[in-house]
Amino acid sequence: MGILTCPFPVTASSHSDTPLPSKSSTFFSSSLFSQTTLPSVHSLTPPSSRQHDHQTSVLHHQCLATLRGHSSYVFSLALAGNLLYSGSSNREIRAWSRDPSAHPHSTNNIDVAISNIGAVKSLVIMGDKLFSAHQDCKIRVWKIDNDNNVHQKYNCIATLPTMNDRFLRFFSGKNYVQVRRHKKCTWVHHVDNISALAISRDGSLLFSSSWDRTFKVWRTSDFRCLESVSNAHDDAINAIISSNDGFVYTGSADKKIKVWKKQAREKKHSLVTTMERHKSAVNALAISTDGCVLYSGACDRSVLVWERDTSNISGGTGGHTVVADVLRGHTEAILCLAVVLDLVCSGSADSTVRVWRREEKNNYSCLSVLEGHRRPVKCLTAAIDNGDNNGGGASDSIIDLKKKKETE
């Protein structure tokens, strides 16, 4: 088994000229249907700023390239150096060059890159290791050989939980938990789809969330499962992120966002606070670089902006208890979020990506609506392009893939 490094087939086009087909009602699962949006939250944007928002929202963006090769839905994306990694529902993980001119005349004629494992639900990179979460309830660790930056090699060095981890807990009854009416397994196992992965700031810990309503903590040095928080939510956990100051955030289909932290001299993460303002399932979470702002997207078609309440930090709440603003505009469920500098990108089941800018006094304006996808935008990733553009400095570069099936 291995990961295929793909050339970058390019199709340059303007998305504004791309006709969008009508959506088939049979395509969307019940979890993607949008529900009634939130009641109005007092906006922090004064009338003068709203006029400015309207002016900046007419910016046009052009599609630089379309990456083709997956034959099924794209579920996950991750950026590392010059490569973009993508994982799909047909068990593929592909690596693409971020430079559209790297292989302008190449085509992809290789079939499945990884076989016999579940759909790839989430990807994260840490140094020379790629972590992938799968529908078969396992996490796989891939060692990246960086000797050749064009055709890299990938070896699966571990599957979590590891055999050693399972063996150590096999004989003691206290290590078993009830997962179904007549079935038990050790607590190191996820027993449903693994929905998301996150890495701690120092890279020592890997967090995984699952539809089994638990999240687990893994040590990246030896891949041992250190902790499992059972019944963390009342329904499937769809998103998990870790902040630089040690807080862990989980978003669930139970409409709640929960904040967790391992306090000093404690061995396990404990619940800090529960944030309840969404009116339907929470699908995506993202956090600003400085850790002061949390963004959450849900099936209620809104992106909530949570800001630190400094008066509560001393009480151990983590500060993310105040809804400062609501970003509206999508017509269907929010499925993914990405933050880079002062930009917030939201992908939706309405097949569009919206780019929002955080401005002075924490006002937000919608800079652009990126159209052209023909299916729900399931995943997003973003990075700063430090290349020189027309003599300018750094520019914002957004790379996104849709949840798609090219055979349709």
Provide a descriptive summary of the structure in words.
With 408 residues, this protein is mainly β. Helix content is 5%, strand content 41%. It has helices at 47-56, 163-168, 310-313, and strands spanning 4-6, 74-80, 83-88, 93-97, 120-126, 129-134, 139-145, 153-160, 176-180, 183-186, 194-199, 205-210, 215-219, 225-229, 237-242, 248-252, 257-261, 270-275, 282-287, 293-298, 303-308, 320-327, 334-340, 343-348, 353-358, 364-370, 379-385, 395-401. Strand 12 and strand 13 form a beta hairpin. The strands form 8 sheets. The protein has a 4-stranded mixed beta sheet with strand order 1-4-3-2, with no helix packed on it. It has a 4-stranded antiparallel beta sheet with strand order 5-6-7-8, with no helix packed on it. Strands 11-12-13-14 form a 4-stranded antiparallel beta sheet, with no helix packed on it. The protein is globular and about 60 Å long. 40% of the residues are buried.
